[in-house]
Amino acid sequence: MIIVLKPGIARKQETTILREIRKRGYKPHVMRGVARIVIGAIGDELTHQSLETLAMVFPEIVESVMPVQKRYKLVSREAHPENSEVPVREHFIGGRRLHVMAGPCSVESERQLLTTAVAVKAAGATMLRGGAFKPRTSPYEFQGLGEKGLKLLAKARRETGLAVITELLSENHAEMIAEYADIIQIGARNAQNFQLLIAAAKTGKPILLKRGLSMKIEEWLLAGEYVLANENANLMFCERGIRTFETYTRNTLDLATIPIIKNESHSPIVIDPSQGAGRADLVKALCKGAVAMGADALLIEVHPNPAEAWSDGQQQVSLEVFAQLMAELRPLAEAVGRTM
Ligand code: PEP
Ligand code: MN
Fold first, then answer.
1. Which pTM was predicted?
2. CA of 94 to the centre of ligand 2 (A)
3. Residue 45 alpha carbon to ligand 2 centre in Å
4. 323 located within any domain
5. Best substitution site from 275, 302, 311 to test ligand 1's pocket, by max atoms within 8 Å of Cβ?
6. pLDDT, tens digit, 9 for 90 and up, residues 53-92
7. Which residues of 248-267 are buried (b: 16+ CB within 10 A; e: fewer)?
8. Domain range holding 40?
C-alpha cells in the first residue's frame, strides 16, 4: 500500500502514522518529497488488517491510501506472463490461429441450425454459436428452445465437427449445459452474477465471459478472477459493446479492450461485433478492426434468413455475407501473423 500524507505534517503526526502502520502488521518505508511524505507499507492484506481505513481514521494526517498490487491476481499478466491458450476440442484459442465462432443468435429449428452450421464450417469457422436459453429483455419474446436446442447443437457438432458454444443463464442448468457445450458463454446480463460464474467454473468447461452492459474493465477482470479462483484456468474475455449515449449503434463496441486485456491479462480476448453494434452492415468492418488489433477470436451471429430470425435479426449476417467476410479476413489475419 502507498500512504500519502497531507502537506506540512508535523513530526509527531508522522510518528503516529508509522506506529499505526506497524501495529497493523506492515513494515513502513518513508519517502520524503519536497511538499509531502509518502509511505510505502509492505505486508500481506489477506492476513492483516487493511490500511485502507487510515485516511478515515486520521483525516487530518492522511491524504490517500492506494494499493500497489492489482485487485485481480490470477487473471493478471504478472501472475502468468505467457499467453494462456484455451483448449476447445482439438483447438486452442489464444494461439496463432484466429478462431471464428459463428451461428445464429438463437437455435430455432434443426433445418435453420444445420444449414448454418454446414455453411459456416465451409467458410472456415471452427466453432458454432447458438443460444438455447435466451436472456430476452421482455418476457413475451422468444426465450429459446431450452434443452431441445442443446440437443440440436450436439447434432450439428456430430455432423460438422464444429465445437459448440452456448449461453448458461441459470445455476440450475450448469450441469445440463456442460453436457452439451464445449464452451460455456456467460452473457452480458450475468457478467457479475458471481454464483453463476462459480457454478460455470466448477463444470470445468472453458468459459467465455462477456463484458456487462455498463461494466468497467477492472470489474470485468475481477469477474474473470472468480473463474480462475474456482480452479478453472480456461477463461476467455469477450467484448460485446457497452451502453453509451450513442444511438446510431445498439452498443458501443470498445475495441480498446483488445490491447488493454492483452496487457492486463494472459487470457484470450474475443470480439462480438454482432451484439457490439447491433447492425449487420457494420459487422465486416468491426471484424477487420478486431483482427488487426490482435483479437484471438470472433463471435459472429449468422442466420440463413436474418429477416425472419426469432431474435436479433437486424444484426445477423447472411450465409453469403459471412463467406465473403471470412475471405476478406484471411489476408488481414495473415498480415498480423495469424492463421485462419
Ligand atoms: C448473444 O450472444 O446472443 C447474447 C445474448 O449476448 P450478450 O449477453 O452479449 O447480450
Ligand atoms: Mn444475440
1. 0.91
2. 23
3. 41
4. yes
5. 275
6. 999 999 999 999 998 888 899 999 988 999 999 999 999 9
7. ebbbebbbebbebbbebbbb
8. 2-66
